[in-house]
Specification:
about 200 residues; elongated; Tetracycline Repressor, domain 2; about 0% strand; mainly alpha; single chain
Length: about 200
C-alpha cells in the first residue's frame, strides 16, 4: 500500500504500473492481482486509506485537548496534527495530493466527496474562531482555509524536522495568520492614519 501510494504520488496514475510496484516490493506481479483485480481497484483502496490516515492523525491531536480548549487552541492543534501527519505518512500524503483529473471516474467522485468533508471540518474550525472573536467577522472563510492549508500541505517541499518542530512552525504560521506580517509599529501607524483620513 505504501509503495503504491508513493508510485501514484511521484509518477501519476497513468504512468504507474502494477508490475513496477511488485518489483519495488520484491514480489511477483501476480501476487498483487491476488488482492486487487486491477490498477483502478488498487488506487481505490490506496486513496481512501491515505486520506483517512492523515485525517485521523489530525483529529487525534484535536481530541487530545481538554474539553474547555479555546477555538484558537483547537485550530492550532488541528494544524499541528495535519503537519505531523504529512511528515509521518509522507508516501500517503503524496497519493492524497494526486491531481483529481488523473484518477478514474469512480475514484475521483469518492475523493471529491471526501475532500468536501475535510473542507467542512476546517470550515467549522474557522467559523469557531470567528464566533470566539479571534478572526474578523468579515474574513472570507474559504480564502482563509486555502491560505493556511496551502502553507501546511506544501510541507513536503520545505519542512525539515531537524530545523524545527511542527509545533514551532504552526506557531509562526498562526502568528502571521492572526497578527499579519507587518511590524507592529507600522501596522499601528497605518491604522491610525486610516482613522485620521476617515
Amino acid at each position: 500500500m505504501r509503495l503504491a501510494a508513493r508510485a501514484f504520488g511521484t509518477q501519476g496514475y497513468p504512468a504507474m504500473t502494477m508490475r513496477s510496484i511488485a518489483e519495488q516490493a520484491g514480489i511477483e506481479a501476480a501476487s498483487i492481482y491476488y488482492h486487487f483485480s486491477s490498477k483502478e481497484d488498487f488506487i481505490d483502496e490506496v486513496i481512501p486509506h491515505s486520506a483517512e490516515s492523515i485525517f485521523q492523525h489530525t483529529r487525534d491531536h484535536l481530541e487530545a485537548l481538554p474539553s474547555n480548549a479555546t477555538a484558537e487552541e483547537r485550530f492550532k492543534a488541528a494544524l499541528v496534527g495535519l503537519l505531523s501527519a504529512l511528515v509521518k505518512y509522507g508516501d500517503y500524503a503524496l497519493a492524497h495530493g494526486l491531481m483529481l483529473a488523473q484518477l478514474p471516474e469512480k475514484v475521483r467522485d469518492s475523493q471529491i466527496k471526501r475532500r468536501e468533508q475535510h473542507q467542512e471540518f476546517w470550515h467549522q474550525l474557522l467559523k469557531d474562531l470567528q464566533a470566539e472573536g479571534s478572526l474578523r467577522e468579515d474574513a472570507d472563510i474559504a480564502l482563509c482555509r486555502v491560505f493556511i492549508l496551502s502553507a501546511i500541505t506544501s510541507a513536503q517541499a520545505w519542512f525539515n524536522p531537524k530545523k524545527g518542530s511542527p509545533e514551532k512552525v504552526v506557531d509562526e504560521l498562526c502568528t502571521i495568520f492572526f497578527e499579519g506580517g507587518r511590524p507592529r509599529g507600522k501596522a499601528e501607524s497605518a491604522q491610525r492614519n486610516e482613522l485620521v483620513s476617515s
